[in-house]
């Protein structure tokens, strides 16, 4: 009942593209994140969830979330199938498709995962999309997202998040804030160690969820090739998730250690995934920033 109500509110917020903001709450949140980061202490799961849910609610007001039930349901089912084996804290996970053509994905502490439409369009198989989900889930389970947010706020002295949460007090308008958010501009860059760890745990999660982890290096290859051909097209993704050729080699080396019999038994692609992609493609094109 409560969950239904939350979903209902979320949909209403998203569909109205609401501009309502609770400035006092937002600023209090920004300050508490800065404080947690400055103190160098790790927030409790309860604090993480409280902060993440407020932050996600604001993101959902600012970013165009795909509300098509078929699309929303598929990403939730696939995401949950991985989170179920990954999460030891019993978080309430939420998975969203963002209606943006740019390649990007990000994770908010507490279990909120966002995948851009542009990234899904580039996934050829279910396992490639599952790899991205597994990686983002890994940033949450390994608490990188929490550290990243604290670091980002320390670096910006809270200005970045204040601009997102209470843009009326910043010079930049809503439009540019939304773009900045979409491009991952307010998030600090993950370290290469964080990336390696998120890849490593994602491979483990995928195998346990019955999904072929070779989707991870396959997706990397696609993105690296596109970066070569169209420099700049993937800046959003790469600004927070550093990607170099060594992540392909590292992930392949880990996968090589898996029993080939097990590897062979895992699922690479499904009809449901291809139907989900076709459904997404059939929806009107992503709005440009000016149209939002
Ligand atoms: Zn990452």
What are the defining features of this structure?
binds zinc ion; 292 residues; single chain; mainly alpha; globular; 3-stranded mixed β-sheet
**How much is the radius of gyration in Å?**
18 Å
Distance between the termini: 31 Å
Major β-sheet strand ordering: 1-3-2
Mean pLDDT: 78
Instruction: Summarize the amount of helix as a percent range.
Output: 55-70%
Number of beta-strand segments: 3
Largest sheet: 3 strands, mixed
Structural category is mainly alpha
Give the DSSP E fraction (strand runs of 2 or more residues). Answer: under 5%
Summary of the model, kept short:
This protein has 292 residues and is mostly helical. It has helices at 2-16, 23-39, 45-62, 69-86, 117-122, 126-141, 144-156, 159-165, 174-182, 192-208, 215-229, 235-240, 245-256, 260-265, 271-282; strands at residues 94-98, 105-108, 112-116. 64% of the residues lie in helices and 5% in strands.
Q: What's the arrangement of secondary structure elements?
A:
Blueprint: H1 2-16, H2 23-39, H3 45-62, H4 69-86, E1 94-98, E2 105-108, E3 112-116, H5 117-122, H6 126-141, H7 144-156, H8 159-165, H9 174-182, H10 192-208, H11 215-229, H12 235-240, H13 245-256, H14 260-265, H15 271-282
Parallel strand pairs: 1-3
Antiparallel strand pairs: 2-3
The structure holds zinc ion.
Description:
The chain has 292 residues and is mainly alpha-helical. The protein has one domain (2-291). It contains 15 helices and three strands. The chain has helices at residues 2-16, 23-39, 45-62, 69-86, 117-122, 126-141, 144-156, 159-165, 174-182, 192-208, 215-229, 235-240, 245-256, 260-265, 271-282; strands spanning 94-98, 105-108, 112-116. The protein has a three-stranded mixed beta sheet with strand order 1-3-2. Strand 2 and strand 3 form a beta hairpin. The longest helix has 18 residues, at 45-62. The chain is globular, with a radius of gyration of 18 Å. The chain starts with a helix and ends in a 10-residue tail after the last helix. Residues 1-40 and 156-185 have low confidence and may be disordered. Residues 135, 139, 190, 195, 198, 241 line the site of zinc ion. Zinc ion binds next to helix 6 and helix 10.
